[in-house]
Design the sequence.
């Protein structure tokens, strides 16, 4: 049998396609400039057993495999490696397998989206805490586990998506299936904790950018959703980055989420605020100028909420120019952000600030919040120094937002915006890589790497030789034929 026939016999004719029209729709990720490559065949499995058979088939025909969740990756991670690629679209694997209310854990197939999973959990009074990435209306749980995603709500309190994973089933590159976390022991019947049984082998697969295996089942912590929430929005005009850092540091010294119930803390720097107001995307902000922060806090008791809101407001007022609001119509967007799940929509408007033809070439990174002002100043300087080159390729650069995580770290969301204009693609790639280098050499860490970020890290030799040699050995153990996402990290 030929490769196509074998794959079709595994997943069924309906879910296997080599048609140009189908393949081309999987040819690129969400970026303006990386080469578009159609896969040879797209398969849409329904079960772990089918994924195992697909991997065995790939070994037999020596074909590369690319696992894909919602396809919302921004750095070339979901783009096929070459025209021989078997693209494994995981979105049919969307069954919730168990909601274990005794142990506060949900187990689900990896292809379900964050929004669908949470819609089911909401009905039972639960949520995943960290609500996934800002793309969570489409992005899948498996994608979130393959990146250290966060930012789609709740990560000031609950950390990154991967922080909440307690169980993982993975199909390795030789077709073996392993279960990681507490269920690595045959005697643990239900997943409940990530660490134990020796070394943290689950960590090899978390944030692996789809290189170490195909995640088929994920178990996540779930949390009862608090009854009360509140939030405020503030404008800052002076020493903006420094004031935001100092405000966060003071809130951290007063207990952050553990004491003050902080669920989210977002900062939008002045250029992004200007874009949003110019396009009238948040009407109630009018034509304000400056940086904007908002926070959301949640509680199970209204008196606790009131006390925490008071403490937070006192701190915020110390470092800001004025409050926006209190109502959404007057500029306080937190009711929309939290109450109406705006966290899954906010990035769409940030990305579209430049207009519908522009796509993000993001250089999103993590850094300690103490370093945040320094990093954003460096990004601003980089933009000034490269103004002519940016103009030549019809691109813009900047920091669109900063999102706090649950301890000392923040995400800095930024990078370039550019069009798909063929003439400018190489110029955009060069600038994109240059900005990555600036950030990585300034002490930042990538939380998704995809193709382009992983190449910058390896090509610029940011890993020590010993670390990279060790990393390659681990890859060889997990994927002995180097068929799963080959090329990333120069594997
Ligand atoms: C509008 C928008 C907003 C975004 N906001 C955020 C944000 O707030 N925070 C953030 O972190 N990111 C954000 N992103 C980036 C991206 O959406 C996230 O990183 C997301 O988690 C990717 O999930 P996905 O299911 O779309 O994965 P995909 O893009 O399909 O895949 C991402 C990577 O994971 C691998 N992969 C996917 N599924 C599996 C699997 N089952 N097994 C093994 N490997 C797999 C792929 O090979 C690829 O390397 C945003 C993107 C967009 C377009």
Sequence:
């Amino acid at each position: 049998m030929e490769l196509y026939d074998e794959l079709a016999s595994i997943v069924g004719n309906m879910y296997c396609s080599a048609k140009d029209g189908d393949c081309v729709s999987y040819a690129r990720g969400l970026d303006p400039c990386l080469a578009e490559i159609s896969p040879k065949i797209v398969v849409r499995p329904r079960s772990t057993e089918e994924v195992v058979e697909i991997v065995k088939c790939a070994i037999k025909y020596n074909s590369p495999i690319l696992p894909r969740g919602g396809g919302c990756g921004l750095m070339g991670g979901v783009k096929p490696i070459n025209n021989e690629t078997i693209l494994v679209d995981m979105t049919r694997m969307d069954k919730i397998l168990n909601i274990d209310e005794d142990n506060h854990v949900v187990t689900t197939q990896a292809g379900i989206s964050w929004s669908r999973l949470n819609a089911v959990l909401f009905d039972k009074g639960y949520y995943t805490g960290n609500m996934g990435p800002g793309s969570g209306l489409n992005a899948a749980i498996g994608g979130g586990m393959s990146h250290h995603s966060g930012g789609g709500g709740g990560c000031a309190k609950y950390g990154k998506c991967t922080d909440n994973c307690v169980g993982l089933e993975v199909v390795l590159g030789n077709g073996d299936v392993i279960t990681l976390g507490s269920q690595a022991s045959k005697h643990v019947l239900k997943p409940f904790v990530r660490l134990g049984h020796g070394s943290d082998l689950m960590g090899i697969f978390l944030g692996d950018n789809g290189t170490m295996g195909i995640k088929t089942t994920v178990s996540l912590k779930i949390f009862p959703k608090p009854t009360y929430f509140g939030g405020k929005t503030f404008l800052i005009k002076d020493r903006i980055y420094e004031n935001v850092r100092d405000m966060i540091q003071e809130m951290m010294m007063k207990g952050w989420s553990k004491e003050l119930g902080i669920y989210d803390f977002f900062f939008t720097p002045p250029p992004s605020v200007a874009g949003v107001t110019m396009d009238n995307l948040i009407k109630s902000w009018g034509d304000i100028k400056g940086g904007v922060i908002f926070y959301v806090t949640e509680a199970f008791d209204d008196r606790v909420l009131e006390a925490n809101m008071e403490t937070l407001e006192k701190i915020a007022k110390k470092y800001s120019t004025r409050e926006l609001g209190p109502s959404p119509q007057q500029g306080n967007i937190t009711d929309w952000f939290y109450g109406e799940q705006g966290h899954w929509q906010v990035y769409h408007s940030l990305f579209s600030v430049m207009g519908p033809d522009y796509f993000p070439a993001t250089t999103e990174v993590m850094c300690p919040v103490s370093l945040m002002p320094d990093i954003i100043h460096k990004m601003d300087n980089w933009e000034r120094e490269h103004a002519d080159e940016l103009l030549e390729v019809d691109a813009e650069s900047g920091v669109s937002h900063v999102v706090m995580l649950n301890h000392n770290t923040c995400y800095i969301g930024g990078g370039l915006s550019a069009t798909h204009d063929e003439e400018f693609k190489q110029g955009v790639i060069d600038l994109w890589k240059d900005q990555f280098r600036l950030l990585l050499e300034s002490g930042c860490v990538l939380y998704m790497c995809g193709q382009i970020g992983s190449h910058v890290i390896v090509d610029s030799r940011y890993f020590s030789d010993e670390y990279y040699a060790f990393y390659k050995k681990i890859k060889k153990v997990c994927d002995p034929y180097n068929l799963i996402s080959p090329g990333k990290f120069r594997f």
About this structure: The mean pLDDT is 95. The first strand starts at residue 16 and ends at 17.
